[in-house]
Design a protein that fits this description.
By secondary structure, the chain is of the alpha+beta class. It has helices at about 5-15, 40-45, 120-130, 140-150, 155-160, 170-180, 195-210, and strands at about 25-30, 35, 50-55, 60-65, 70-75, 80-85, 95-100, 105-110, 115-120, 255, 260-265. It has a five-stranded mixed sheet with strand order 2-9-5-4-3. A four-stranded antiparallel sheet has the order 1-7-8-6, with helices on one face. It has a two-stranded antiparallel sheet with strand order 10-11.
Length: about 270
């Protein structure tokens, strides 16, 4: 699933391309992905212009003229592609926004878990308020310490709980815990103050690396131009089960934590 670095990469690219462009037509090939339904979205959105592309956690927020909003969640396999209409067809495209000068915004979702949803300002605020604080925005070290020290959940599960901490998913939780030398199964409230501070810094480090490399394309993710990210070249432990630990020379192990594949070094991450 695209996480904060991947979604932020797409946001930055689309925010360069879309503002000022009018939605002239919406083609929908799968009505399940355009909510509440294609006709209502067309009635409200066609003729409006994109004003700004925002983001909260893994959610993209398209601000349109007339105080209209479209929310987009990519889920496991979603892609938002800025194309020329003359470009070759992209796989799994379900929704196409026709724009001026032969441009298109294509929404593809191979596994059909993603969506684009029409929402008024009040609904947007209600949805955003349900997220926890986010790294680089409002997640301070003080807030992070309070969240961690009050949780009896496994620390990896806590990092991925969007109501507690917004934007972090499986890839960056694994790598941050490795850098911090913390066992992913350890209960969050058992971490010492120094471990919490180290984890906070490690989380910011891997997320920053993810944004600087355009995100991780280990599976479905592509940026708004259809390009792969590069963070997968720098995975610390994620997806590296059986490989040699870069820090101690031990073997990276894969386990399940909260039902999700989890990668760590049993030798380095005993704390």
């Amino acid at each position: 699933m695209p996480e904060l670095p991947e979604v932020e990469t797409i946001r930055r690219e689309l925010d360069r391309e879309l503002p000022g462009l009018e939605v002239r037509e919406i083609i929908c090939k799968d009505e399940r992905l355009l909510k509440p339904d294609p006709e209502e979205v067309r009635d409200v959105v066609v003729g409006e212009k994109f004003e700004k592309v925002g983001r909260r956690a893994k959610l993209l927020i398209f601000r349109l003229s007339g105080s209209k909003n479209l929310l987009c969640h990519l889920r496991m396999s979603g892609r938002l592609l800025f194309r020329d209409e003359s470009d070759p067809e992209d796989k799994y495209v379900s929704v196409i926004f026709k724009l001026p000068k032969g441009k298109e915004l294509r929404f593809a979702s191979a596994r059909k878990f993603g969506y684009i949803k029409l929402a008024n300002n009040q609904t947007v605020e209600e949805i955003l308020n349900d997220y926890g604080p986010e790294p680089f925005k409002d997640l301070t070290l003080k807030k992070f310490k309070k969240i961690v020290s009050n949780s009896g959940a496994a620390v990896k599960n806590l990092l991925m709980d969007q109501k507690k901490i917004a934007g972090v998913g499986n890839i960056y939780a694994n790598d941050a815990l490795f850098l911090a030398k913390i066992n992913p199964e350890k209960k969050a409230k058992q971490l010492t103050d120094s471990q919490i501070e180290n984890l906070y810094k490690s989380l910011e480090q891997v997320l920053k690396e993810g944004m600087e490399t355009g995100g991780a394309s280990d599976q479905w993710y592509r940026d708004a131009y259809g390009r792969k990210g590069k963070y997968q070249r720098y995975f610390k432990v994620y997806g590296r089960a059986g490989e040699t630990c870069s820090r101690c020379g031990g073997k990276i192990k894969r386990i399940k934590v909260g039902g999700r594949s989890t990668f760590f070094c049993p030798h380095c991450q005993q704390g």
